[in-house]
Amino acid sequence: MYELAHLGIVVKDCELSINFYCEVLGCTVIERTHNDNLKIVILKCGALIIELLEYTVPSIAVRGAGVYDHLAFAVDDIEQAMADLKAKGVLFESDGPRVAFSGKKIAFFSGPNGERIELVEEKASESQDFNTRL
């Protein structure tokens, strides 16, 4: 069984969303990062991690996945998890995992109703650091 790692939500304005989630719902910002196309803010809400995604390029900002962009499941070995899921007929968006912002390895696939699902493998030291922040 895979463990839920986080819920990714597409937002129009990260700062507005941070204010709402933190001031209204009591979440805490634990990480911020960005590149030319995307701002990401990681929030802790009890045991749940929420990933706010603000796409800054108009052609990317419109996503077919909806407001809830994806569910992410933590895995210890992403290559093995991908092989196991491929053996069960799962088709991934890419041939192998890619390295994300913080050195995490990620891979996406679709569920039976088109929902986006992500596998995420944290770097060992980051997993330990991340868990101590929780």
Structure description:
The protein is of the alpha+beta class and 134 residues long. The chain has one domain (3-133): Roll (2,3-Dihydroxybiphenyl 1,2-Dioxygenase, domain 1), CATH 3.10.180.10. The protein is 26% helix and 39% strand. The chain has 4 helices and 8 strands. An 8-stranded mixed sheet has the order 2-3-4-1-5-8-7-6. The chain is globular and about 45 Å long. The two termini are 22 Å apart. Residues 125-134 have low confidence and may be disordered.
Instruction: Indicate the percent of residues in helices.
Output: 25-40%
Q: Which regions are unreliable across 5 or more consecutive residues at pLDDT < 50?
A: 125-134
Query: At the fourth CATH level, what is the homologous superfamily?
Result: 2,3-Dihydroxybiphenyl 1,2-Dioxygenase, domain 1
Figure out the total of helices.
4
Our count of domains comes out at: 1
**What is the general shape?**
globular
Which structural class best describes the helix and strand composition?
alpha+beta
How far apart the termini lie comes to: 22 Å
What is the CATH top level name? Alpha Beta
Radius of gyration: 15 Å
**How many extended strands?**
8
CATH fold topology: 2,3-Dihydroxybiphenyl 1,2-Dioxygenase, domain 1
Mean pLDDT: 83
Biggest sheet architecture: 8 strands, mixed
**Which architecture per CATH?**
Roll
Strand order of the largest sheet: 2-3-4-1-5-8-7-6
Q: Strand-residue fraction? A: 35-45%
- How are helices and strands ordered from N to C? EHEEEHEHEEEH
